[in-house]
């Protein structure tokens, strides 16, 4: 398709967008009494309007049933998390038994590393990507310290080549082969939070396992954003947050994946708690742990149902839409945003350098843009004029046109505000 940088063209695209009506199912902040252009769904998704009803249902059950809500609520609390297994399995490409919801992201990654980071002898090293999200970096450091190793010895970062913004697949594979029989774990972000680069999960997983390591993924920026086939790709484990592309609310519950081949391994260590105990015998208060079959067997504490309610509202919306439809719009609207940036670049003296890969296979709902010749004042101008975006030092803005609630006209309007912010300075 040949794009045009006009309002009429953008509106024509919106009129043909089968997901366009979902914008009305979200609550947008306002700036200057006007709905914002929201580009930060990669940090915190907007609130779906249906969320309140799901929370109110739990509050009403609590008020009317108190403790009996565990068994007699419309959605009984004692198995509330089981409602996620079917819709979440479709979002991440898993069997229903391979997914669960519990805790928060880094907590779950730590718990999964109890099972899947088992350093022994010379096999103790972890491969991750350079500039992983800081929480992952802190996690790696504390984990290797806990096991008695030094981070500078045990943590191997895959680096970008000089002058390049993204990590090459061949460099990942080469590093895995180089570390070889010293490698215990590969744990990488499925989508790099800074550049928006999407990694080849299937190929990297196969390479890590061929080297004798376990392979896990931090899918914070991937779940609900890219096509995942965790079961078929043979991923050992993964975890993701729910509050970015899946719009569950700030700091909300995290999803986990554990491949079915690990479900019946009695020698696999895990930290146990009563909510992971045999469901039919959970309330018998037995002294010995008998894990629930599947990923639910990694549960520890009874779940915060008030936190799960907004996540359930979101995953049921995803079930209505389907990942294929979301990804189709994601690719198209991201390409239109890229076009708009290039068009505005021609009209101003500044230079925009998109550091997210141009290959559609290596990017998703994010473009990270170096604003050469611009500083923080341009970001401040955008925010004051109703464009909610994200600033990263030294002069990068991250733009995430989320397909559920971003419009093509938003992309056009952003371009005009961006141009005015530069020319007006």
UniProtKB/TrEMBL annotation:
EC number: 3.7.1.3
Listed Pfam families: Aminotran_5, KYNU_C
Residue positions, PTM N6-(pyridoxal phosphate)lysine: 244
UniProt entry keywords in alphabetical sequence: Hydrolase, Pyridine nucleotide biosynthesis, Pyridoxal phosphate
Gene3D superfamilies documented for this protein: Aspartate Aminotransferase, domain 1, Type I PLP-dependent aspartate aminotransferase-like (Major domain)
Entry GO CC: cytoplasm
The Aminotransferase class V domain, residue ranges: 157-246
Pathway(s) served: Amino-acid degradation; L-kynurenine degradation; L-alanine and anthranilate from L-kynurenine: step 1/1; Cofactor biosynthesis; NAD(+) biosynthesis; quinolinate from L-kynurenine: step 2/3
UniProt KW ATP-binding keyword: no
UniProt keyword annotation of Ribosomal protein present: no
Residues the record lists as binding pyridoxal 5'-phosphate: 105-106, 133-136, 218, 221, 243, 274, 302
Cofactor: pyridoxal 5'-phosphate
Highest taxon, organism lineage: Bacteria
Alphabetical GO biological process terms: anthranilate metabolic process; L-kynurenine catabolic process; L-tryptophan catabolic process to kynurenine; NAD+ biosynthetic process; quinolinate biosynthetic process
Record's catalysed reaction(s): L-kynurenine + H2O = anthranilate + L-alanine + H(+); 3-hydroxy-L-kynurenine + H2O = 3-hydroxyanthranilate + L-alanine + H(+)
InterPro entries noted in UniProt: Aminotrans_V_dom, Kynureninase, PyrdxlP-dep_Trfase, PyrdxlP-dep_Trfase_major, PyrdxlP-dep_Trfase_small
Quaternary organization: Homodimer.
UniProt xrefs under HAMAP family: Kynureninase
UniProt function note: Catalyzes the cleavage of L-kynurenine (L-Kyn) and L-3-hydroxykynurenine (L-3OHKyn) into anthranilic acid (AA) and 3-hydroxyanthranilic acid (3-OHAA), respectively.
Membership in a protein family: Belongs to the kynureninase family.
Protein name in UniProt: Kynureninase
Organism field: Flavobacterium nitrogenifigens
């Amino acid at each position: 398709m040949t794009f045009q940088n006009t309002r009429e063209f953008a509106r024509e695209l919106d009129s043909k967008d089968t997901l366009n009506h979902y914008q009305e199912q979200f609550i947008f902040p306002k700036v200057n009494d006007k709905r914002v252009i929201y580009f930060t769904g990669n940090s915190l998704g907007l609130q779906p309007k249906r969320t309140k009803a799901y929370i109110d249902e739990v509050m009403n059950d609590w008020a009317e049933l108190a403790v009996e809500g565990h068994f007699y609520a419309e959605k009984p609390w004692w198995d509330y998390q089981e409602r996620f297994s079917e819709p979440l399995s479709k979002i991440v490409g898993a069997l229903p038994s391979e997914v669960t919801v519990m805790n928060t992201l880094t907590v779950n990654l730590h718990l999964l590393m109890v099972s899947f980071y088992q350093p022994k002898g010379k096999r103790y090293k972890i491969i991750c990507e350079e500039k992983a999200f800081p929480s992952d970096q802190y996690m790696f450091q504390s984990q290797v310290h806990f096991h008695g190793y030094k981070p500078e010895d045990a943590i191997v970062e895959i680096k970008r080549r000089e002058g390049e913004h993204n990590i090459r697949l061949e460099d990942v594979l080469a590093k895995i082969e180089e570390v070889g029989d010293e490698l215990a774990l590969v744990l990488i972000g499925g989508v790099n939070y800074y550049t928006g680069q999407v990694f080849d999960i299937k190929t990297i997983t196969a390479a890590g396992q061929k080297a004798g390591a376990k392979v896990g993924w931090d899918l914070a920026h991937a779940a609900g954003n890219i096509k995942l086939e965790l079961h078929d790709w043979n991923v050992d484990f993964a975890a993701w947050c729910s509050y970015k592309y899946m719009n569950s609310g700030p700091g909300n519950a995290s999803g986990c994946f554990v491949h079915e081949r690990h479900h019946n391994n009695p020698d696999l260590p895990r930290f146990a708690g009563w909510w992971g105990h045999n469901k039919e015998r959970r309330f018998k208060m037995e002294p010995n742990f008998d894990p629930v079959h599947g990923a639910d067997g990694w549960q520890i504490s009874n779940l915060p149902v008030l936190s799960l309610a907004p996540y359930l509202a979101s995953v049921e919306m995803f079930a209505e839409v389907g990942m294929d439809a979301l990804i189709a719009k994601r690719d198209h609207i991201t390409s239109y945003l890229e076009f708009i940036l290039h068009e505005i670049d021609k009209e101003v003296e500044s230079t925009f350098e998109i550091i997210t890969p141009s290959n559609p296979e290596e990017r998703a709902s994010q473009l990270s843009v170096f604003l050469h010749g611009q500083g923080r004042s341009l970001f401040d101008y955008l925010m004051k004029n109703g464009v909610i975006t994200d600033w990263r030092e030294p002069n990068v803005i991250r733009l995430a046109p989320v397909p559920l609630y971003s419009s093509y006209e938003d992309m056009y309007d952003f371009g005009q505000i961006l141009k005015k912010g530069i020319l007006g300075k």
